[in-house]
Backbone:
């Protein structure tokens, strides 16, 4: 059977009926799901008339899906999207944001580290006129090593991305529908959401939120993920800076380098002709050839980058995940 896509199942529903969708990526969180779902239901029931909680099972192998199915059978406002495999937290968030029906969409971790009681505060802030309100874990409940690496990563992001947030990594965020629908999250992109949105002109605010220790299961991120996250950061930064016309950047560098190489070559030829120096003892000819070659490489890279960006834009409708089942009475 072909995989379902968001648009296949969304066609005949009425998004205006649901005020709030909560999206929760799940990867092996069996022990955390029921207590969290109960907390979440209590908060949502007291605050909103029409809501849905969308759990995205990102290929769990610990029986999380069984628990989610039970939760859905007990309360059909709890809905489940089950991936065919483990695609990662970003694709899981992407799927949840794609499927969400609410006017406002909140994302949060499914391990209980984010506190459902913070949701109304984020939504209130959103109503002050923002498109995205991001949680700031001012008092983080993670081991020291993790807090340090996360501080370091936040500093790097600030330096590269130019958006001024205290905390980029917090999953607990609230979005207005247009912002929620205007993101393609692949790789480790969930770490850069505020930058991606503010580059597109969305207004972002930050609100301090509670952060709790994990009570069951294990963290899915170790320090080995840092280099991957860093590469994605460079990628996001580069994308923002140069995606318009990479050829303009690479081509300029290429021309500069070829120019310097050619001048060095001409100078070397002049020296040779006037026999005023023994060229074989200088590095000048080698330098000239080297610079011209580098220049050609830059130029070709620019052309390749242009081609691949066009290809990317063309293929952009491709989702970064595959869905196995959807548990949702509305769809
Ligand atoms: N997660 C996911 N797919 C993954 C890794 C993580 O859906 O490949 C989910 C995980 O179940 C949790 C959230 O993403 O709800 C954050 O993961 P985790 O708690 O391990 O990260 P940490 O809080 O340690 O940074
Ligand atoms: Mg966690």
Residues:
């Amino acid at each position: 059977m072909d995989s379902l896509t968001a648009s296949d199942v969304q066609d005949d529903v009425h998004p205006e009926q649901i005020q709030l969708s909560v999206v929760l990526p799940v990867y092996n969180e069996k022990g955390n799901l029921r207590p969290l779902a109960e907390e979440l239901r209590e908060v949502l029931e007291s605050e909103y008339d029409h809501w849905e909680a969308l759990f995205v099972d990102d290929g769990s192998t610990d029986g999380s899906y069984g628990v989610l199915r039970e939760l859905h059978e007990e309360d059909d406002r709890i809905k489940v999207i089950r991936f065919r495999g483990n695609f990662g937290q970003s694709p899981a968030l992407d799927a949840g944001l794609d499927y969400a029906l609410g006017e406002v969409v909140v994302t949060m971790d499914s391990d209980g580290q984010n506190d459902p009681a913070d949701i109304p505060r984020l939504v209130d802030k959103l109503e002050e006129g923002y498109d995205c309100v991001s949680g700031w874990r001012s008092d983080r409940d993670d081991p020291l090593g993790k807090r340090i690496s996360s501080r370091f990563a936040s500093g790097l992001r600030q330096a590269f991305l130019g958006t001024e947030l205290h905390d980029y990594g917090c999953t607990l965020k609230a979005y207005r529908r247009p912002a929620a629908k205007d993101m393609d999250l692949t790789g480790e992109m969930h770490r850069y959401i505020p930058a991606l949105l503010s580059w597109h002109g969305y207004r972002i605010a930050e609100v301090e939120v509670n952060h709790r220790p994990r009570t069951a299961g294990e963290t899915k991120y170790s320090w080995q993920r840092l280099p991957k996250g860093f590469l994605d950061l460079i990628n996001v930064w580069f994308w923002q800076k140069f995606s318009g016309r990479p050829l303009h950047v690479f081509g300029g560098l290429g021309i500069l380098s070829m120019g310097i190489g050619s001048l060095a070559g001409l100078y070397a030829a002049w020296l040779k002709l006037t026999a005023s120096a023994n060229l074989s003892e200088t590095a000048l000819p080698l330098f000239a050839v080297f610079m011209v070659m580098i220049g050609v490489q830059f130029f070709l890279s620019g052309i390749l980058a242009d081609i691949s960006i066009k290809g990317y834009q063309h293929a952009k409708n491709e989702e970064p995940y595959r869905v196995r089942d959807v548990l949702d009475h509305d769809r």
In short: Residues 72 and 78 are 5 Å apart (CA to CA). Confidence is low (pLDDT under 50) at residues 7-13.
